[in-house]
Amino acid sequence: MSNSNSxxxxxxxRIINNSSSNNTYKIISKNLIENxxxxxxxxxxxxxxxxxxxxxxxxxxxxxxGYKNFIELKEVSKTYKLNRLMSMNDNIEDLKFxxxxxxxxxxxxxxxxxxxxxxxxxxxxxxxxxxINELIHNSDSVSLYAFLLPGxxxxxxxxxxxxxxxxxxxxxxxxINLINKSSENSLSLFFSVDGNFIxxxxxxxxxxxxxxxxxxxxxxxxxxxxxxxxxxxLYMGNCDTAxxxxxxxxxxxxxxxxxxxxxxYKDELI
Length: 270
Hints:
Elements: H1 3-18, H2 24-34, H3 44-50, H4 55-64, H5 70-77, H6 80-92, H7 102-123, H8 126-138, E1 141-146, H9 148-163, E2 168-172, E3 186-191, H10 202-210, E4 214-219, E5 232-235, H11 242-264
């Protein structure tokens, strides 16, 4: 999915998830999503009528999304169908059901994931994980950077660490207006299966490095261009498919949390 389209859906997602059911912007978001494929044929007056609001409110909503006007938003919608297809290619890859050999296709998919996890098992470096946990423990605070599914795992990691008394902040790598005012003795932890968004986050990485912060990356891709900027990199076995990598990242997050707790809260164990 193109960056402009992904930004649009992320902003709509935040409105939907963080607004009450009768919130005007939530209602507009619902109507916009349901009509996005045909938005080029809908006028601002029609969208306002569908949303039981005024044209001026629609205009404010559009500007809040980052577009100059409703016409610019409609231009973005023209690529919606193509980008929907592109965004689903990742989901369809290795899982192309044909209604004839669905069992075999699914079994192959599961075997691919199992092989990837087996490779992770054979290449896990517990000493390095413990070293990362020591850096995290000794830092004043931790900044977490991720996007989409890795972002969900990062937020799970965040709430787990908060429950252990470790202050963590989460930043979405799709948001170019990130503001991080953490202290020098802080640590930045990046979650990225294939390194996507790492290069486009160069400014964040360079700024963090300039402030003397420790930078740690968890990935399966050994060929990330900015890898030399990180103090530590935790590689998740071989560079497998993005899908397999997601499952490895889930296991990796569990390992980080498990060993952190066992190391620094062992007195609580019965």
